[in-house]
Design goal:
The structure holds two protein chains of two kinds.
Chain A lengths: L2 E12 L2 E12 L3 E5 L6 H8 L7 E6 L2 E2 L5 H7 L1 E3 L12 H8 L8 H5 L2 H22 L1 H4 L11 H13 L5 E5 L7 H18 L3 E5 L3 H7 L2 E6 L2 E6 L1 H6 L1 H8 L3
Chain B lengths: L2 H22 L4 H27 L6 H18 L4 H25 L2 H21 L9 E2 L4 E2 L2 E2 L4 E3 L2 E3 L2 H23 L2 H11 L1 H6 L4 H27 L1 E2 L6 H14 L7 H14 L6 H16 L16
Helix pairs in contact in B: 1-6, 2-6, 2-9, 2-10, 2-11, 3-4, 3-9, 4-5, 4-9, 6-9, 7-9, 10-11
The chains are: A alpha/beta, B mainly alpha.
């Protein structure tokens, strides 16, 4: 197993604030890596720099053999990295199906001629899209498969999270970045969401995942390995139990002891 | 009946209704003029709908792009022998090209700032027309009659015992083009492009994270919208037979936007109704003179108060029927 993602000295400054400070990080093919740390420690910034939302100030990232430092968000997606967002970023007035198809962008034909004139071919592609959406939802949460044409605004939070994850999965990425999927949900809902995710992953083949999470029980249960950030720096790395015992990590979370 | 079937039927009925109405009014110049004007404005508003309603690109210079189409038609029909059908298309292309001047600022700004950029462009355009003598300056330009093949638009229609005002010619052409523009815009909405434009409008960050080229989507919507406004402007200029900078004021742009809001932003179906209200109502209220604007404005405010999403709010998109 080789490293799927390799970051060297990845740095991002906002004015005087160093949000990400020379981060070295590797994600192995097929693992679930937990990314933890106190608020403001640079976890989401890491996702944003990796996916081209912000350019890196310095450092580099490689995805497989491809250098992806400072790629546009679109190019990062095309390379095979998909993400979810901390705050739900579904298009609420659109149907669940439309939202999923946003994630399926790379498999769809967006030419004006194709869409306006070749309606029959478009219809076939729509049918394919519906089949793919239904199959994924069957795997993830069967009742949702029957609700494809409800507006996203009308489904509860846990289903929105499910749709967000499915939107990221439907384009068959090689690496999935999950930014705090439990935010705004109860413990029980989080547990169910994680069950669904693990189940889907088992059937989809060993998808590589980086997971940002504050809920330590989730991290403990789901991840193979953890990286702990504080003030933009990596302060610990290893299995959850090992990391949780680390004095630096305890200090970062609980203050000086 | 499927949803698609119902919509086809509704479209056919609308066309039959307008055609029947125009035939009934065939001797009434003013009424026919209003019908044609409503249809032309619908074409322009369909364009604005793609910009505002789908892609979320703000454009307060609708009347300007309408005017670019009109002036293009005037210049071509006065100075060249280009066939008139092509002139209508050229009006659209000219408006689309004029829009390219604005693309950079439109891509870089949002909300109020984008509104300001387009308003500034509209003011510049008017000033440019007013000081430009080759375009007639403040007095404007006259246009010759529209001819398509043997079809002469300014001749009264006389087929056997059937007689009608020359304006019926323009109504027929406007109805045809409006139906075409309507089909185009609805098809764009019910396609991957529609999904893509909605995603861009609702959340650029997440749209970009899923590979959607934001700039390209906005440029497509902006250009398509301006093209439709330009075609409408060219037809309008020929029908009126005369254009001047005053016809393309900021106020006219606002009227186009108010039609969009009144009809239900993002929904092509509300536009004909809203355009009819906004254009015909003030004319029908002539008897109360200047008070008509007060009454009319009050009515629009009331409608928007009780139907904030417009007369016909946009329905959920259902791709592939359901």
């Amino acid at each position: 197993m080789g490293a799927l993602l390799r970051c060297n000295g990845l740095t991002r400054k906002f004015g005087g604030v160093v949000a990400l400070d020379g981060l070295d990080l590797q994600v192995e093919e097929g693992e679930i890596l937990g990314l933890i740390g106190p608020n403001g420690s640079g976890k989401t910034t890491f996702f944003n720099v990796l996916t081209g939302v912000f350019p890196a100030t310095s450092g580099e990232a490689r995805f497989g053999e491809m250098p992806i430092t400072n790629f546009s968000p679109q190019a990062v997606y095309q390379a095979g990295i998909a993400r979810t967002f901390q705050r739900s970023r579904l298009c609420l007035p659109l149907s669940l199906f439309d939202n999923l198809m946003v994630g399926n962008h790379k498999n769809l034909d967006h030419g004006l001629w194709f869409n306006v004139v070749r309606r029959r071919a478009l219809k076939r592609q729509i049918e394919e899209g519906r089949k793919a959406a239904r199959e994924l939802l069957e795997l993830f949460d069967p009742p949702l498969a029957g609700r494809l044409f409800e507006p996203a605004s009308r489904v509860p939070m846990i289903d929105r999270r499910r749709i967000e994850i499915c939107r990221a999965l439907i384009g068959k990425p090689r690496l999935l970045l999950l930014d705090e999927p439990s935010a705004g949900m109860t413990r029980d809902e989080t547990r169910r969401l994680m069950d669904d995710l693990l189940e889907a992953r088992r059937r989809l083949g060993r998808l590589t995942i980086v997971l940002i999470e504050h809920e330590m029980s989730v991290i403990e249960r789901v991840t193979d390995r953890c990286v702990v950030l504080n003030y933009g720096k990596k302060i610990a790395e290893g299995a959850y139990r090992q990391v949780a015992e680390d004095p630096l990590v305890r200090q970062a979370y609980l203050g000086l002891s | 009946m499927t949803r698609e079937g119902r919509e086809r039927l509704a479209q056919a009925l609308a066309i039959v209704f307008v055609a029947g109405l125009s035939l009934a009014l065939r001797e009434d110049d003013f009424a026919l003029f209003l019908v044609a004007r409503v249809l032309i404005v619908v074409i322009a508003c369909l364009g604005l709908n793609v910009q505002f309603g789908y892609a979320g690109v703000v454009n307060f210079a609708g009347a300007t792009f309408f005017g670019v189409g009109g002036y293009m038609a005037a210049v071509l029909s006065r100075g060249t022998g280009v066939p008139h059908l092509f002139i209508l298309v050229a009006g659209g292309i000219a408006a689309a090209l004029a829009g390219c001047v604005l693309i950079l600022p439109v891509l870089r700004t949002r909300g109020h700032y984008a509104a300001l950029v387009t308003i500034a462009f509209a003011l510049l355009f008017r000033t440019f027309l007013e000081v430009n003598d080759s375009l007639g300056g403040p007095q404007g330009l006259k246009l010759p009659e529209l001819r398509i093949g043997p079809w002469r638009f300014n001749e009264p229609i006389a087929l056997g015992r059937f007689e009608a005002s020359f304006l019926l010619n323009y109504v027929i052409l406007a109805l045809f083009l409006a139906a075409l523009a309507f089909a185009l815009v609805v098809r764009v909405d019910r396609s991957w492009i529609g999904v893509q434009l909605d995603a861009v409008r609702l959340d650029e960050t997440s749209a970009a994270a899923f590979g959607i080229p934001i700039a390209r989507a906005k440029i497509t919507a902006f250009t398509l919208g301006n093209f439709l406004a330009g075609v409408a402007g060219a037809l309008s200029a020929h029908m009126v037979g005369f254009i001047a900078p005053n016809n393309y004021s900021f106020g006219e742009s606002l009227i186009l936007v108010s039609i969009l809001l009144l009809g239900g932003i993002g929904n092509a179906w509300g536009l004909p109704l809203a355009a009819a209200i906004v254009i015909v109502l003030p004319e029908q209220l002539q008897v109360i003179q200047e008070y008509r604007y007060l009454l009319y404005a009050g009515l629009v405010i009331l409608i928007l108060l009780f139907r904030p999403n417009g007369l016909v709010p946009r329905p959920l998109r259902r791709l592939g029927g359901a």
